[in-house]
Design brief:
The complex is a heterodimer of chains A (about 350) and B (about 300).
Chain A: H1 15-19, H2 54-80, H3 102-108, H4 113-146, H5 154-166, H6 169-179, H7 186-194, H8 211-235, H9 240-248, H10 253-281, H11 285-291, H12 302-313, H13 316-348
Helix pairs in contact in A: 3-13, 4-8, 4-10, 5-8, 6-11, 8-10, 10-13, 12-13
Chain B: H1 25-52, H2 57-61, H3 74-82, H4 85-116, H5 122-132, H6 137-155, H7 163-187, H8 191-199, H9 204-215, H10 217-233, H11 236-241, H12 249-252, H13 255-258, H14 264-298
Helix pairs in contact in B: 3-14, 4-7, 4-10, 5-7, 7-10, 7-14, 8-9, 10-14
The chains are: A mainly alpha (about 350), B mainly alpha (about 300).
Protein name (chain A): ABC transporter permease subunit
Family (chain A): Belongs to the binding-protein-dependent transport system permease family.
Membrane topology (chain A): Multi-pass membrane protein
Amino acid sequence: MTSAHVSSGSGVSSGANVSSGTAREGRAGGPRHGRPPASRNRPRSRFRLPPRLLPYLLLAPAVVAELIVHVVPIAVGIWMSFRELTLFYIRDWAKAPGKGFGNYRVAVDFDAAIGKDLLTSFLVTAGVTVLAVGLSWLLGTAAAILMQDRFRGRGLLRAAFLIPYALPVYAAVMTWGFLFQRDTGMVNHVLADQLHLTGGDRPFWLIGGNGFWALVTVIVWRSWPFAFLVLMAGLQNVPRDLYEASALDGAGVWRQVRHITLPALRPINQVLVLVLFLWTFNDFNTPFVLFGKAPPTGGDLISLHIYRASFLTWNFGTGSAMSVLLLLFLLLVTAVYLIATSRRRSAHA
Amino acid sequence: MHDTPPAARAGRPARSRRAPTDPPASFRWTRRIVLTLLAVFTLVPVYAMVSSSLKPLKDVRGAFHWFPTEPTFRPYVDMWSTVPLARYFTNSVIVAGGATAASVVIAVGAAYAVSRYRFAGRRVFTVTVLSTQMFPGILFLLPLFLIFVNAGNATGIALYGSRGALILTYLTFSLPFSIWMLAGYFESIPRELDEAARVDGCGPVGALLRVIVPASLPGIVAVTVYAFMTAWGEVLFASVMTNDQTRTLSIGLQGYSTQHEVYWNQVMAASLVVSVPVVAGFLLLQRFLVTGLTAGAVK
């Protein structure tokens, strides 16, 4: 068995070397090591695979799974968005007649009910996302920076902060659903009975306009620990001597935070904010478990909206068109974001 | 960050400094206040979950109490009969366990290929797999639902509603992150180690199993926990792709609130029971997850 295909290079271990290492591709050939005679006595495997094929063989299961669950369904989803795929054709989709851009026209006709509701849901989602991502990032950053030094109870506190992220989403959100109950919940008990902030009123949190704030609270509660976890990992890579040197130059803690810690976190923040944005914008679980199948307008996130539009009417064609529009929007935002932040980063460098 | 050594740099007179672990008072007070508020925000719902799970039904019917009037373990007994919790539990264990095992095995192989080989399509693979992670789930849900329904009609194999279909779906959810993180882990293992194994007569797969896997066990354990958490908590696909017999906990637990009355004490008890394994696993292994994130981020 030749062992040559492993690109061993000059002890490649750092990232830069790896990504530039593609040039080595295709240099398969003779054995790299002289094989010591002892190894000849070992039983050889019966199959001799061309070494060039091995990486593909190792990847095959992952590729097949991704194809079945992600790639093919996206293609099928795009096809569906051009079909009249209503209840009659669900069990026999090959017969669904073509509809051209009809489904898209329905989705973006903002004067008619379907389009108007979709637009409202889109705006609500944008509002929830901006608030929730901003707050999650802020809390995560604050906690990560404040917990950079050792102090008593730090390990325990860190574990406590990670609990919301570790909880299964439905368990966490159902707990919040209980806390937000109007008559039996903790939130109204604190606000109305203990702090008397509501003027004797017991507001509804899961019905009506307050649903928006309830949803933002739950999403922030669940996602700020993730920001905290990622930023903590990022802070471990900031070289200590930077702080030591700046302290010798007389910089205080706050100046160090501003001039060393935050700039050092910028590359991680670029990815973190994007991930938080995509997760929140696509969030289905939180509103679905919190409100059930009839969310208030302020809690009708776009994934849940498309889900309801599809499964209430069984009109999968329109639902697919809406999903494709959502995907296009996310791709556009991601592309603009990456271009803008990368340009700023290189301008800073 | 402030463990400044008292020694001065060359050419600078030594100045007396604070003790290394002693940031200024403004920083310490900010820390105390902010972290206390965050702890309250984080832990109050957790406390409410625990305390309410120990309440008799009359406590959760009326106004909220911070403490149970008479603590009882009844909710932990009753929750099994209000909804078929044991069945949901079994389904969740099968689905999440199956998806995790498959996902980790597949990810180890793929990560080995990505980290140790240069081959055509390597970059396309990594980018495609990672980007699917970011697409909205609803985009796959409708087509996947139709694919499973129609494939079942065509072949006679019931895919829709089956645990197998759910396992296949869930394993792909954790796959991208697992491959990415394990590839980072594998990169950090010196190649000399697997070359030494090859010299001793191991094939590439032997080197993977005997050298790489043992050396990156923390990473593999962390990925396992992550994959299990992902499958254990999934709601969207479970809400569509399961039937009465295959329903998992994520949908089954909502059964407590669609009945005539909401048994909030039992909801909290059941939530707690299904959460404890994953939360404990995560908290025990979060250190490895942080290391893995750092290893991956180096790339």
